Amino acid sequence: MNPKVDFYFNKAKKWQEEFEKLRMIILDCGLTEELKWGVPCYTFEKRNIVLIHGFKEYCALLFFKGALLKDPKGILIQQTKNVQAARQIRFTSAREIVKMKPILKAYIYEAIEVDKAGLKVNFKKTTEFIIPEEFQDKLDEIPALKTAFDALTPGRQRAYVLYFSAPKQSKTREARVGKSMQQILSGKGLNDE
C-alpha cells in the first residue's frame, strides 16, 4: 500500500467500500500502487496495468491494454467507440466485487502477462479517421492551418479530429473548428495551455 494513495480512498464520498475491495484484490496480485492522474494506478515494472476510478453510476477497473485480453466472461467494456486500447470492468456494489474476486485476479494476471510479453495494441492511424467536412474546408482554405495541423503529433491531430467530429450539427462543428484554429496555428494540442 502506498500512503500517497490513501487520501484518494479516504476522500471518496461514493464507492469507498468498493474501492477498498478492488485495492486489496489488485495489491494481492503483486502490483505496485501509485497515484497517477489523481487516481490509484497499479503498475508492473513501472508500466501501467490497471487503475481504479469512480463515476456517478458505477466504479471500475480500467485495464490499459484491455483490448488485448481474452475476456472469456465477456465483462470488458469499451468506454466509448473512440477508446482503442483500454477496457473497463464496471461495478455497482461491493458484493459484486467479492463474488468476482477470482475472475478479477485472473484478468489482472492475464494483463500482467500481456505486458510481460510486450504485446501492443494496434492503434488506428490518424489518417484512418475521417476529417469532418467543416475542418477539411478550413485546411483547404488556409494553407498555414494545414501546415500547422500536419506538424502536430498524431495524438494531437487525433484529438482535434475526434473533437470536431463529435457534434451532430454542422454549425457546432464549425464553431469548434473556429475556436480551435488559433490553438492549432500556435502548435498546441486541444488541451494544451
Q: Could you characterize what this model shows?
A:
There is one protein chain. By secondary structure, the chain is an alpha+beta fold. The chain contains eight helices and five strands. A five-stranded antiparallel sheet has the order 1-2-3-4-5. The protein is elongated. The chain starts with a helix and ends in an 8-residue tail after the last helix.
How are the elements arranged and paired?
Layout: H1 3-11, H2 16-27, E1 32-36, E2 39-44, E3 47-54, E4 59-63, E5 87-91, H3 94-99, H4 101-116, H5 133-141, H6 143-151, H7 154-165, H8 170-185
Antiparallel strand pairs: 1-2, 2-3, 3-4, 4-5
Q: What attributes does this structure have?
A:
15% strand; 193 residues; 46% helix; alpha+beta; 5-stranded antiparallel β-sheet; 8 helices; 5 strands; single chain
Explain briefly what this protein structure is.
46% of the residues lie in helices and 15% in strands.
